[in-house]
Amino acid sequence: MTDRLRSLQDLQTLHRELKLRQRAEEERREREAALARLREQEARVFERTVGPVVPLPDPNRVILRHGRPAPEPRQRELDEQMAWKQALSDDFDVDSLLETDETLSFRRPEISAESVRKLRRGHWALQAQIDLHGLRRDQAREALGQFIHDSARRGLRCVRVVHGKGNGSPGREPVLKARVRRWLVQKQEVLAFVQARASDGGAGALMVLLNAT
Prior knowledge:
This protein has five helices and five strands, in the order H-H-E-H-E-H-E-H-E-E. Strand 2, helix 4 and strand 3 form a beta-alpha-beta unit. It has helices at about 1-50, 75-85, 115-120, 135-155, 175-185; strands at about 105, 130, 160, 190-195, 205-210. It starts with a helix and ends with a strand. It has a five-stranded mixed sheet with strand order 1-4-5-3-2, sandwiched between helices. It is of the alpha+beta class.
């Protein structure tokens, strides 16, 4: 008798749960239906407010699709910048590499003496220059390295580097003159350099021949 009573109570409990679930489902459907009716009413209000809609005439235009810009090799550029910054040394022995003429010119072994003479005579048109006046040693070294690097990448052949004559320096000795020669020799883009002609700066500047890439 006790087991039968317990089973009857379980059935009543299950029946109540089913009714609760059914009621909850009906309420959910009613809420969704009410929300749908509200949206429909709002749409009708918008349509009545706006009124009849007339499509715009075809402008007969072509929409151009611009392609994505080519990716910039930022990491490679950063690596290159770091390489030339670390490469230029003030302790580099340059004397043995300079030509023993009055201007202490320089040329790499693959460059002929005739090319140096052409550079001295202004055979190649001057395409760019950098003026290192007023820069401290570290600033000048960095600026010169960047200038040579950028000029070679731009395909420039002949550039001028102005280091000054030292008229305003202690002892009237140019501070950067020897260092600029030392730095230029270490740059692989530099094929040769000579002292500029008087009309191009004379003893205060160098004409540089680059290996344009």
